[in-house]
Specification:
Shape: globular
Number of strands: 13
Radius of gyration: 23 Å
Strand content: over 45%
């Protein structure tokens, strides 16, 4: 009788383990995150502005839906801003291929793009994005963005970042020239009260090149700016 009871109990345990092992919903649940990597006040010698850069995603380990947005608010109104809606598929450890739509919204003309890109973590832990865009009127653009985290302590972190933009042809309406368009670099020093909440200070440098710089000079805009930052980084 005792032997039969033990056999029955062991069978129940195996059955329970099997149900957990083969339950796909438990093994690959739907998860989500909203992240504001930049929510900051930026000040140059001439003006100040509010800048945002935020991501949100929902999905499983291999397949996710991403929403990305960034932009600037100055002089009491929204300046350039963009939104991307992307399907993301994991293709290797720490690497995803993303494709979808991007919309640029500014004071001249709204633009729509087809997007395909690669996002992930390189050796030595550089967070990297390489994105190719094809516009509705045949424009093309390539953007490279990489960021690194240097830990002084577990809470005090310095993040250098560089973003390079290249365009396929001149577009006077958007003020972008063919070839190397602009380079933007930044340093942000943050203090993580928790992993989800970190105020920061920093500096950002932006320089335009080639025809893009010529378009800016024609309209009286600066082709080179240095700005000081104070902001907040958080996620949930």
């Amino acid at each position: 009788m005792k032997h039969g009871f033990l056999t029955f109990g062991f069978a129940c345990v195996l059955s329970s383990m099997a149900s957990k092992t083969w339950s796909h919903s438990d093994a690959d649940p739907i998860v989500s995150m909203v992240s504001f990597t930049q929510l900051e006040h930026s000040k140059t010698a001439d003006e100040s502005s509010a800048v945002w850069n935020a991501d949100a995603w929902i999905g499983k380990d291999y397949d996710k839906l991403w929403l990305k947005t960034n932009g600037e608010y100055a002089h009491g109104q929204r300046q350039d801003s963009s939104i991307e809606v992307l399907y993301s598929r994991a293709v290797a450890t720490y690497w995803d291929i993303q494709t979808g739509w991007r919309g640029d919204f500014n004071g001249t003309e709204n633009r729509h793009w087809f997007v395909v890109g690669l996002q992930g973590l390189t050796p030595y832990f550089f967070e990297t994005e390489l994105t190719f865009y094809v516009g509705e009127h045949g424009q093309t653009a390539l953007k490279f963005d990489t960021e690194y985290e240097l830990l002084f302590t577990q809470k005090l972190i310095l993040s250098p970042e560089i973003e390079v933009s290249i365009h396929g042809r001149n577009d006077r309406q958007t003020g972008t020239g063919g070839g190397l368009s602009d380079i933007e670099t930044g340093l942000r020093l943050r203090y993580e009260f928790t992993r989800k909440f970190a105020p920061y200070i920093g500096v950002n440098y932006h320089k335009e090149y080639g025809k893009t710089a010529e378009f800016s000079r024609d309209t009286g805009r600066d082709t080179e700016t240095l700005s000081w930052l104070i902001g907040l980084r958080f996620w949930f």
